[in-house]
């Protein structure tokens, strides 16, 4: 069963959730969510750009009663589409996501990307537009539409800028984080401000097929996996969770969905943790927002 971490505002967030990037259509989502909920997942990560919010909303109506779960027993995250930055636009987008999901409030709403779609990464308007979005999110939070708010793909620079200007500090920062991309500066900035760091692409999947599963096949990951007699995927998830970093592995393989929850059933030694951390290559398997002004 899932374990929880307390966010800075006192809300409990499951430390593991189910990722749903590229998981689309009721036929795929139904067995995926059904298996996840039955196995004990209590958190689902979606986003406006994943185009699966409406299907997830439909399935929540079906699956929660079937599993005798109340709305509050499941933690739903969605994200502001990068095209929807700006004053009023962010508010409308969040309310639109709520409608699709069939929810009156959302557990966590994140700014998906620090830049605005349709504008160059170096566009001088990016900082103003993302601050306007944050102001909308502060209002949505105060009005109870979002139980927690946060950002995604913010670097230390983007986060420091936000912390300097916000009224309400983000509760969560979701970003790429795994042994090939270790970010001690970002992690320590989050810890200093009581912001929960949630990792994505923990298993190092990538959009480019030639790099697929490079992390899952890393020799050190494989040797630790042998030592603890757990799959390489579990070793990578455990490495994060043992540092109190949240994880949201995605899978449509029902066995993988179930087995990823075994992350709570074993521990890595300090030596194994250090070995994995030393694999750092500052390599992004997903997006890199460094160039976004
Ligand atoms: N904020 C952002 O910009 C952002 C960016 C990327 C992702 N995300 C979120 O983070 C989630 C996770 O990231 P991700 O989807 O990039 O990748 P991921 O969770 O690191 O990896 C998913 C891949 O790993 C495989 N997998 C899962 N469990 C496995 C296991 N036990 N053994 C072997 N293979 C396993 C899955 O294939 P099978 O289906 O075959 O198991 C899938 O191909 C996303 O779904 C999304 O919700 C957010």
Q: For the residues shown, what is the average pLDDT?
A: 96
Terminus-to-terminus distance: 41 Å
| Cα Rg | 18 Å
Q: Catalogue the unreliable spans.
A: none
H/I helix tally: 10
Order of helices and strands: EEEHEHEHEHEHEHEHHEHH
The class by helix and strand makeup works out as alpha/beta
| SS strand fraction | 5-15%
CATH superfamily: NADP-dependent oxidoreductase domain
Secondary structure: helix percent = 25-40%
How many domains make up the 3D coordinates?
A: 1
Shape: globular
Key attributes of the depicted protein:
single chain; 293 residues; alpha/beta; TIM Barrel; eight-stranded parallel beta sheet; two-stranded antiparallel sheet; 38% helix; 13% strand; globular; binds NADP nicotinamide-adenine-dinucleotide phosphate
């Amino acid at each position: 069963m899932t374990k929880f971490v307390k966010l800075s505002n006192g809300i409990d967030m499951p430390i593991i959730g189910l990722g749903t990037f590229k998981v689309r259509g009721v036929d795929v989502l139904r067995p995926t969510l059904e298996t996840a909920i039955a196995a004990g997942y209590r958190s689902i990560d979606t986003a406006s750009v994943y185009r699966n919010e409406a299907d997830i909303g439909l399935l929540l109506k079906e699956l929660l009663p079937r599993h005798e779960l109340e709305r509050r027993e499941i933690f739903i995250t969605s994200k502001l589409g990068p095209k929807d930055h700006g004053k009023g636009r962010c508010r409308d987008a969040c309310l639109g996501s709520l409608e699709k999901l069939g929810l009156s409030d959302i557990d966590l709403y994140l700014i998906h990307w620090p830049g605005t779609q349709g504008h160059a990464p170096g566009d001088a308007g990016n900082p103003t537009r993302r601050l306007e979005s944050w102001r909308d999110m502060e209002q949505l939070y105060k009005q109870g539409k979002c139980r927690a708010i946060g950002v995604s793909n913010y670097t230390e620079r983007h986060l420091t800028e936000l912390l300097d200007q916000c009224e309400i500090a983000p509760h969560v920062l979701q970003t790429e984080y795994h042994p090939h991309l270790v970010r001690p500066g970002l992690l320590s900035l989050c810890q200093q401000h009581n912001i929960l760091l949630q990792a994505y692409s923990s298993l190092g999947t990538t959009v480019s097929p030639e790099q697929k599963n490079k992390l899952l096949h890393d020799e050190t990951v494989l040797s630790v996996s042998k030592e603890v007699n757990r799959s390489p995927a579990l070793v990578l998830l455990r490495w994060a969770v043992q540092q109190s970093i949240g994880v949201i592995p995605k899978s449509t393989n029902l066995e993988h969905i179930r087995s990823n929850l075994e992350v709570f059933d074993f521990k890595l030694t300090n030596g194994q943790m250090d070995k994995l951390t030393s694999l750092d290559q500052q390599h992004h398997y997903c997006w890199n927002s460094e160039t976004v002004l």
